[in-house]
Amino acid sequence: MKPIVEKLSPLSTAEPVVCELVRGPDFGCVWHYHPECEITLVIKGGTERLVGNNISAIEPGDLVLLGSNVPHDYRNQSDAGLAAQEVEAIVVQFMPQLPGHEDWMNRSTMIPVRRLFQRAEQGLVITGITRLTATRMMHEMLEVHGMKRVILLLQLIDLLSNSEEVHEISSAVMPQPRPGASDRVSMACEYIATHLPEPIYVADLAAIVGLGKSAFSRLFKKGTGRTVPQYVNELRIARACLLLAETDLTVSQIAMDCGFVSPAHFQRQFKEHQHCVPLAYRSRVVQQP
């Protein structure tokens, strides 16, 4: 099931930063995406959230930042015979161009903010003391409008961009080298992405970029934070999640398309990373509230 493109909120014509209190039996959404970045604070209710290729249980206090066009859904499933608890959440949406001048984002002091928005393409969950401070700011946003709300948002973005208590939720469909990584690493990553269904060997990648196997392995680990096998497997699992969610291909077809040696190997690797088998993942993604 492909995610639905959600239209801009009517409030966006009046407010540069939309902040709404959601109350009711559910979050009022389906598997969808939109151009706005989004911050969601779950105050009560809710059972699970889907962000990219990740499905996680949620509890009161869950706080997540999503980048532009990240597929997601929040659900409030009822147990057998029992009604689900009413949902209450604060949802903030804003265009990623804030504060409105692209030149600002190119300044060296804005590197942490640029990195935050890059990471938000995988969804970010906020934890610890940072979450407590951000939660207070989210509640304050409900009470103000216009520039006062914009200022609060900028303060919140600054807080998150300098915190170590902000963690990626989903795997990237195309994992990116770290900022400043060697061009050779970028070349290897591009080759991996375009040859995913084929066997991929470290020795071949090293030869492509003109390095010895050991030197290339060290450079790749420094530039991506992963070994070559870890990187390739992460990319294959991420692509498999996308195909399970958005196509009707069989598990065997997906295993072949993503470069796994067999459907059985795919099943094992998928369960290890997603904690469920591929068909169970597909069933949970396409399930509607």
Automatic annotation (TrEMBL):
PROSITE patterns assigned to the protein according to its UniProt record, in alphabetical order: HTH_ARAC_FAMILY_2
GO MF entries: DNA-binding transcription factor activity; sequence-specific DNA binding
Alphabetical keyword list: DNA-binding, Transcription, Transcription regulation
A family per Pfam: HTH_18
Domain HTH araC/xylS-type as annotated: residue spans: 186-284
Protein's UniProt name: AraC-like DNA-binding protein
